[in-house]
Specification:
The protein is an alpha/beta fold. It is built from twelve helices and nine strands. The protein folds into two domains: about 160 residues, 3-Layer(aba) Sandwich (Rossmann fold); about 120 residues, N-(1-d-carboxylethyl)-l-norvaline Dehydrogenase, domain 2 (Orthogonal Bundle), CATH 1.10.1040.10. Helix 4 runs antiparallel to helix 7 and helix 7 packs across helix 11. The chain starts with a strand and ends with a helix.
């Protein structure tokens, strides 16, 4: 399949690499040229401007945030020039508001648009083990299924309206934030009474809390594995996306407000460039464990 790919950060470059390895004809674009040029030797075309990527059956977006998506797709007018024959497959993590804006722009331009944010870190992207949440027209989803098969281990279809996938991603990442916060608090509480952190983790993950999120983030906190693959600052972005969506949809989310305060405090104490799991370390420090 002829595929365009925009955004070659930690996640994007792994995803684009898998598509190349699977035999798809790939043209890449990245605002920083060095990341794109590294794909030239692997047989990919390298676009100088975003519009050059539109000559494809599917154009995948994996950009960092709303500001990047706005610059490439909205402010430039690119969404309005997308050919009706192509599909814009937006796999970026964006706000509900931006998701709705992109949907409207593509509808006005007569082009096909899917939202398909992913769950997983760069190592999962490299192995094709992402979880993909997709929403949009059935025909466009069917067209993209071969790509989903290369990039992910499973695909969840949420509905026909693309922003439905965006709100699922936002809500799920908010839940991850609550898990990290609650793990940090529970570890601090038990450690203050002399309970070994690894022992406590084994107990909770061997009983009612055996889900991967508890096991993985719990292990990272116990082992102090804070080399970032998803930084605490990005965790704050996700919490703020939840709060923004809550305001737009009139849903009270007091826990999201508390999480935001905790993230800001942790960043102020120097944890911002560490992994999201380092929120647990900040909580331990606040509890007087160091």
């Amino acid at each position: 399949m002829k595929v365009g790919f925009m955004g070659l950060g930690q996640m994007g470059r792994e995803m684009a690499g898998r598509l190349l390895d699977a035999g798809h004809e790939l043209t890449v674009y990245n605002r920083s040229r060095a990341a794109a040029d590294s794909f030239r030797s692997r047989g990919a075309g390298v676009a100088q401007q975003p519009i050059e990527v539109l000559d494809a059956e599917v154009v995948i977006t994996m950009l960092a945030d709303d500001a990047a998506v706005d610059a490439v797709w909205v402010a430039s007018g690119l969404a309005g020039t997308m050919p009706s024959s192509g599909v814009h497959l937006n796999m970026s993590s964006i706000s509900l508001k931006m998701g709705k804006q992109l949907t409207i722009l593509h509808q006005a331009g007569g082009s096909q648009y899917l939202a398909a944010p992913v769950f997983g870190r760069p190592y999962a992207a490299a192995q094709g083990q992402l979880d993909i949440v997709v929403a949009g027209p059935d025909a466009a989803i069917a067209r993209c299924k071969p790509l989903f098969g290369v990039l992910g281990k499973q695909c969840f279809i949420v509905g026909a309206d693309p922003p439905q996938a965006n709100i699922v991603k936002i809500a799920r990442n908010f839940l991850l934030g609550t898990i990290i916060e609650s793990l940090g608090e529970a570890f601090a509480l038990t450690r203050k009474s002399g309970v070994d952190a690894a022992t406590f983790l084994n107990i909770i993950t061997s009983t009612a809390m055996s889900a991967p999120a508890y096991k993985n983030y719990g292990r990272m906190i116990v082992e102090k594995a804070y080399e970032p693959t998803f930084g605490l600052k990005l965790g704050l972005k996700d919490v703020e996306l939840a709060l923004e969506a809550a305001g737009d949809t009139h849903v009270p989310m007091p826990m999201a407000g508390l999480l935001r305060e905790q993230h800001i405090a942790a960043i102020a104490c120097g944890y911002g460039d560490k992994d999201w799991a380092a929120l647990g370390e900040y909580i331990a420090e606040s509890a007087g464990l160091y």
